[in-house]
Design goal:
RelB/DinJ; Damage-inducible protein J; Arc_rbn_hlx_hlx
Length: about 90
């Protein structure tokens, strides 16, 4: 198998943090990048994930819902139709 070299620029903090994680896993950048590129070729897609950290609006909604639950001032609907009727009234 012939070898090729890829050079790219990366934020130094990102590189340092990635190196720490790879070291903990017993891997190096070459192994990690090769594995990633093989996955890219097989799947023909790049997957981006977003951390599951709620934004300010969602955190506020969750707090409000928790307050309603604690106060007991909420309605339970037995059917979807009952819920829909309440929404439309």
């Amino acid at each position: 198998m012939s070898q090729a070299v890829i050079n790219f620029k990366i934020d130094s903090k990102l590189k340092s943090e990635a190196k720490e994680v790879l070291d903990e896993m017993g891997l190096n950048f070459s192994v990690a990048i090769n594995a990633y590129l093989k996955k890219l070729i097989i799947e023909k897609r790049i997957e981006f994930t977003v951390p599951e950290i709620p934004n300010a609006r969602l955190r506020r909604s969750i707090r409000n819902a928790e307050k309603l639950i604690k106060s007991g001032k909420y309605t339970v609907y037995k059917t979807h139709e009952d819920f829909e009727k309440a929404l439309l009234s």
